[in-house]
């Protein structure tokens, strides 16, 4: 919200809805899952790094070559203390729908419903499932998903942004030109985080929002 000077009634409605959702008691039958994507530039070393040895860290040259880009899906269940990631070449509707379906099948096949928190990217729509899967198959998937969207210019309300920040710091800092290596390292990072049962303790409430942001509110 720091890019705009006024918060509309629609912004507040969506913000309040998400803050209420985050404040609910944890229910494993209806988990809250926050999802987002990150574009990652693939980089190739121009000089061979000097290997690490006792008392000396790995040394890399600051120069690099661009080697294209890829996409990383990140979905985190803050209170369930687990996350799901996937590296893809693109982030099309088919990529998005495939990631969500695999996540539901592998981690949430027995839940009653998932509350999926996302931003307003044009692939994050019910119609994407219908286009990719067909109306009949999509209906069986969509009956188990309730969509929740952040306000425009309010990515801070999506806890997937927090998880992506941790992924970026812990796993994505080094140069990589091979998507398969990146995918393996992201998968290993996910496994470690899940094994450690790392969650996100969200404490920002509607009262906090009104106290901090009320001078930006407009009718």
Question: What would a concise description of this structure say?
Answer:
The chain is α/β, with parallel strands linked by helices and 219 residues long. It has helices at 9-23, 93-107, 126-133, 135-142, 160-171, 179-195, 206-213, and strands at 32-45, 64-77, 82-88, 114-118, 145-149.
Instruction: List the secondary-structure elements in sequence, H or E.
Output: HEEEHEHHEHHH
By CATH's scheme, which homologous superfamily applies?
Ribonuclease H-like superfamily/Ribonuclease H
For this structure, the CATH topology is Nucleotidyltransferase, domain 5
Mean pLDDT: 91
Q: What share of residues are in beta strands? A: 15-25%
Biggest sheet: strands side by side, in what order?
3-2-1-4-5
């Amino acid at each position: 919200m720091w890019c705009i000077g006024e918060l509309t009634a629609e912004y507040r409605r969506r913000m309040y809805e998400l803050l209420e959702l985050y404040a609910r008691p944890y229910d494993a039958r209806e988990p809250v899952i926050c999802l987002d994507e990150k574009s990652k530039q693939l980089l190739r070393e121009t000089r061979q790094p000097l290997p690490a040895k006792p008392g000396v860290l790995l040394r890399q040259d600051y120069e690099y070559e661009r080697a294209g880009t890829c996409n990383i899906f990140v979905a985190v269940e803050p209170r369930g203390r687990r996350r799901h990631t996937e590296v893809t070449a693109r982030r099309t509707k088919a990529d998005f729908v495939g990631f969500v379906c695999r996540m539901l099948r592998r981690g949430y096949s027995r839940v009653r419903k998932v509350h999926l928190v996302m931003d307003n990217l044009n692939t994050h729509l019910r119609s994407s499932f219908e286009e990719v899967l067909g109306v009949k198959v999509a209906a069986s998937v969509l009956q188990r998903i309730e969509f929740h969207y952040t306000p425009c210019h309010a990515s801070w309300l999506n806890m997937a942004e927090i998880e992506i920040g941790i992924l970026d710091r812990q796993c994505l800092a080094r140069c990589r030109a091979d998507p398969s290596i990146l995918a393996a390292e992201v998968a290993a990072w996910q496994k470690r985080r899940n094994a450690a049962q790392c969650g996100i303790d969200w404490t920002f409430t509607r009262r906090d929002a009104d106290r901090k942001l009320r001078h930006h509110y407009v009718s």
